[in-house]
């Protein structure tokens, strides 16, 4: 837990913390659901809802462009971006705006991360940019109104690995039995923090939304009808796990600042990731996460452009991420000798080392002199 908070704090200070208006969170002094209510007041005041069509203009903001992977200034779409390789297709803004689509790569549209059927397209939820992502129109349609979750055996997979299929009813996602949609690991935290924002900004609306929602099997699986906890126990654990696994990124910070300029309010869980656990508590992690939390990384700082990683669990992936959020090295299914993994040829600099095992992740700070 401390590793995540250190990562989030350092990243926020380095890349955008100063852009939070002075005193914006001064009244956020409570704990638990009292803090959530205080945050609701803060982010409701000053919220100047814009039209749904105004989102097309917002998506032209540089914050939505790819400055983190290929760095090609195309739209960064969470359903098509391949963080460790070349994208299958790219979208230019605004020329590739949907329109109609015939398959992946046809055009981009506006994805309601919280399905609009849940709130019957009511304002201001309908055009609230904090939970509206520009995404591939075809993949958006595939996601439909299905809840997010952990897919067991995929029935459909996008070109970047986002999946649709039956929920894996075990581990941190135990409790769902229907079809779910699972984005790639790189953007799971982004989606979780959008849900935490929605539950906070529309806290007082949540009971009536649950009662009046037309969907009783898909969308409602994510919620419990309350104004405090808001989420079903299974879905809350999924969100908390994704928030923990995928810390706040420079991209999220930039978009949060752009949306603040657009509609006058912020996502507090991007500015202060620690608020998530202060409000809802901690996720119920699997044993592999507990083992990840005590991994040793040495030497650190390193003077020989290499680091060693001692891990009691088998690692599925090692990512070395620079301060700008770019993945400098990505090692899938790395080999270990006597439970020690080695990452070599690291240029001098400040990095974050993301280690993944059995869909659980932890992040370590690394300095190469």
TrEMBL record:
<dbReference type="InterPro" id="IPR044925">
    <property type="entry name" value="His-Me_finger_sf"/>
</dbReference>
<dbReference type="GO" id="GO:0016787">
    <property type="term" value="F:hydrolase activity"/>
</dbReference>
<dbReference type="InterPro" id="IPR007346">
    <property type="entry name" value="Endonuclease-I"/>
</dbReference>
<protein>
    <submittedName>
        <fullName>Putative secreted protein (Por secretion system target)</fullName>
    </submittedName>
</protein>
<dbReference type="Pfam" id="PF04231">
    <property type="entry name" value="Endonuclease_1"/>
</dbReference>
<keyword id="KW-0732">Signal</keyword>
<dbReference type="GO" id="GO:0004518">
    <property type="term" value="F:nuclease activity"/>
</dbReference>
<dbReference type="Pfam" id="PF18962">
    <property type="entry name" value="Por_Secre_tail"/>
</dbReference>
<dbReference type="InterPro" id="IPR026444">
    <property type="entry name" value="Secre_tail"/>
</dbReference>
<keyword id="KW-0540">Nuclease</keyword>
<keyword id="KW-0378">Hydrolase</keyword>
<feature type="domain" description="Secretion system C-terminal sorting">
    <location>
        <begin position="297"/>
        <end position="368"/>
    </location>
</feature>
<comment type="similarity">
    <text>Belongs to the EndA/NucM nuclease family.</text>
</comment>
